[in-house]
Predict the structure.
Amino acid sequence: MGSSRRRFVGASGAGLLTFVVAGCQRELTPAQAREAGAELQTLSAQQAALVDALGNQLVPGAAEAGLSHFIDQQLAAAPDEQLLMVKYLGVPAPWDGLYRDGLAGVNAAAQAIHGQDFVDLSSEQAGELAAALAGGSIEPWQGPPAGLFYFVLRSDAIDVVYGTQAGFERLGLSYAAHITPPDGWAS
């Protein structure tokens, strides 16, 4: 892992990133950015809703942890500063197309199979589509390799939900950061 990813996952403790809220830059966790209504920079509102809906199927609590705001903020950054898992897989930048095309593929499959957008599916229907995505058997599919898209989105969701001191505590694990964050950075 690169040092910037380690900084977010380990050293920051709270996963503070810079978001724009009401025209002002603020350092917030992705969850705080979501709660504050931080402005989306790269994703549309519909794409962000789809990220959250699919993210919750892959890692429960991902939407509340601010997954869509995390991905949006990261896609707006320069590729060498991004903390997205795809950066570490040898996939050439830029990566916004992978996310957009993957989301479009998931939504198109939901429309073809169930006649509605993914965000409108029942939990059971969404779970079945997420499982098909994980297995690379989602049909019809147009987009990046389904297994790759599943892996990067799930990895990003895991980082946002569990990659902070509070996330480690939810798992009942000791937080052993390389560099312990200052007190008061709790999310």
About this structure: The chain has eight helices and two strands.
